[in-house]
Amino acid sequence: MTKRQSDKHQRKGVCRDLHDGICQQLTGLRLIASSLQRKLARANPEAARL
Questions:
Q1: Structure pTM?
Q2: What is the spatial distance between Cα 6 and Cα 20, in angstroms, rounded to a whole number?
Q3: What is the pLDDT of residues 26-38, one digit of tens each?
């Protein structure tokens, strides 16, 4: 493998890791937001509609 190919391979790995990490974080935030929305709806249905 040439230096150029090695660099390209390494960049792809870094990009994949960043993408996967961001997707996991966004999914976690979505789950937390959904949970908070359900709790708010039970506590104050009118406020949950806002």
A1: 0.60
A2: 21
A3: 999 999 999 998 9
